[in-house]
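chain below, 958 aa
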Amino acid sequence: MNIALSRTREYINTYKTKPLFFVLAYTALFAVFACLVFGYFFIYRKSFIWYHDGLKQHYNAILYYSKYLKNIFRVLFTEHRLKIPLWDFSIGYGSDIITTLHYHGIGDPLAFLSVLVPERFMEYWYSLMFLIRAYIGGLGVSAFCLYHGSERFAALIGSLIYSFSAYGMVLGLMHGCFMVPVMIFPFIILGIDLVMDRKTPAVFIFSIAIAAISNFYFFYMQLVLAILYALASFLVRMRSNGDLSIKSLVPALMREILRFLCFGLAAICLAMPVFLPVVMQLFSSERYGAEKNIHFFYTLGYYLEFLSDFPNTQRPGAWTLMGYTPLASVLILIGLVIAINDFKRKLFDKNNLKLYRGLAVFFLLTIFLVVPFFGFALNGFAYVTNRWVWAYSMCVSFIVAQMISVIRNHRFEKNIFAVSGLILIAIPLMIPETRTIPTLISDCLILAIIVGILITDLGTLKTWVYRTAVLVILSLGLMANSYIRYSLEYKNEGSFATEEFLSFHEADKKLKDENPDTLGIPSMTGDFYRIEEERLDVTPNSSMQRGVFGTQFYFSITNPYVSRFIDLLYMNWPKDYDYRGLDNRSGLSSLCSVRYALVKDGEEARVPVLYDKKITTGETSIGPVTAMENPYALSLGYAYDGAISSEDFEALSVTERMDVLTNRVVLDDEDGFYSTFQAKRAEDLMEEVETSGYASFDGKRFFIGKNGRARIRLKGDLFDKYSKDDSEIYLIFKNLRFKGITSRDSYDDGMWAGLRPFEKRQVEIDDRFYRSEKASSISATYGTENRIIEIYMPGYDFYCGRHNFLCAFRPDDTDTIELSFRHPGIYEFDEFEVSAQSMDRTKIGLAERGKYCLENIAIDTNTISGSIETDSKKILVLTVPFSKGWKAYVDGEKHELKQANIMFTGIPLNPGKHDIMLIYETPYLRVGLYLFSLGLIATIVILIINAGRRMALKKSIL
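prediction:
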């Protein structure tokens, strides 16, 4: 019996050393901790689909991508044709599918697997993808820690801290694609070590390729951080060899650079079919070309909260999310005590060298987190944000894995540790801004761990007791973070996260069912038109699920020509990647082929003035809806016989630009079509501006203090004229800027004197960490209509460089416009006016455009065709967003395409009847496929050579 038990134990101990046993143990622990951390979602029956970007962008894209792939395979298997759609008119005004949706899923291997998931289960798959990414990332951290000598249990603890850090619990849940670097980065770092140790380059090549093809944005961050790690790793290895002389260092560095360039270029080439088109599109984005305003330091509040937020899911700012639990906080503190003590004694333990290196990296990355420039640089020089904090999480996890073993085998100064620990607890508690419930919970757990370490000899504890204690402490920390972040019982800023996530089946309902498509709008067969849904509560981007040609767009990468059009026409959309319609302007709607405007029944007065024909009213899934028709809406293609250059167009006022567009096409390099046209500027309606509360107006700026408001009175005689005509009223700001003021400055002397002492003290506390607001808004109310002008300034996350805005109103009996302001401050501008424009000239111009229209329109996969007959030379304008991917054929012969009316496509035509054909191919896709072929060949050659070298080395050793 004893022999049998002995052999059983021997077999189990032998099995414990197998990689499969470790993977099974990690899988079991991950599953348990996933239930502990995300249990509230299961209790409340919530999915991981965030109501905002998660629904509108990320889940929407995955759902679309799944149907997209299924359609490709269906055609391939049933018709034996490879038919890959590259353009879709239901995305905005029409967009490239690959470049638009790459950021949100196209290229990600896990997203590709959605092709296997039935549509009714897609919400479950989307939620599961989050856990899979966290699981794979933790597995990668485990592999990295084990490679660097950590014990198996220690590696498990490190991987769990990484997988369930605050970055994933907050940002990763909100934006599904933000978990891509969490999944991939540990393998990139491990791959670098394998290459430097002359082992297989496969891990490095394939992890770089997957990172590049999955998400360009996070690939940039991973690449920069990987280069820094590779350089540091190289110097460490050279130092361990005992030769840091320039004579040895430079040649060795050049050899390593060449090796990594060879492997890295092969890897990136594997991603080029997706990566290259997306990067080329990205460089044209206004968001990345806008003016930047970077501070040297964060606010004082950021630094005070940084320490207190290290163990929990709160954030000090700039999306710095840590949440490494009290266990990690204490272990890192002990590691710092050990390292500082050893440094003072100049007696370094060789067994702790990797710990010292980990702490050095931790110190460097902490500097990155507390200096705004590094958040700016790692975000592609767009704006300051620390979305790269997953790399910090990996560093913390590695140190924890090292400390799990070191703490039992290394004696440290417990007095210094105790004092340091008490200071760690006391500092947040002494500051009112950091004395929060999450901090109190974290400090209680930290104090309990410190006391436990001080009164216990960890080296004498049985292994199973020690490991159980570590798991319990880690569980308590993660459960506390989960309670603070997700529990409905906890009420504080940053909680109620589960309320912002959708229940299962709710996302599909909002994207597909809650829409007005049940209205009896005529079929689009043989015709083309767009539908305006701006005034309905439909989910942005849902048109791509319903196959509707609309005017809404909300994705991270947009067509630069569409963005330029919105900018030049002063449309009230401050983000170049987020627009919801044509801003209530009749002429622009007609020129963009918008035929129907849908509104809630009874709100017909909200549509542009030319929409004067009610088509139908019916009950829909979102309530009673009315469809109003625009009788002046133009087809997909219409013709001009005169042109104006873009330079002359941009020299006009915004109302003159709108007048010109209905009569002349904006076109460059076509001298034969240029003709003079006297643009008409809208007539000034503003009589005077009155202010109330603590506010003033001097013609160039509004100063807005406490309760400050403004009212614009319109000229009575002109108002009577335009309010009874087919006209539009415009509120216009040119170069609108905002500068915030302190709470104290928002009170005038009388208001301040009227405050009670404690109220004055509260204002002073509010100003303690004041930094000027980078965003505000102006609310303009005319009659029953309200428009919001969002103002973003350099340094704000969503700043895209836009400062010109126009709000269009349909006239009614009201002769005033009320202005209210979100924040006290100074609202400056170069021009400010209220004007009115009659639609008479607009209707004449639109009628002329409608005389020569594209007919027999057919839209197929990547093609548009139709016919048109003209009696003279014309410029055919197609309301297809301009892209270098389009190729035009007129009567079967290739024809040059022009950029027309800023964002659309134009074709010069001679008199006669013509057959028009447009064919689309994603720009740089073909080049990307060629580079992929080269990368695949290079990768195969590299792996074969490496395998041969390793076999030769093995034989020589034997």
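The longest strand covers residues 912-920. The chain has a mean pLDDT of 89.
thats it, cya
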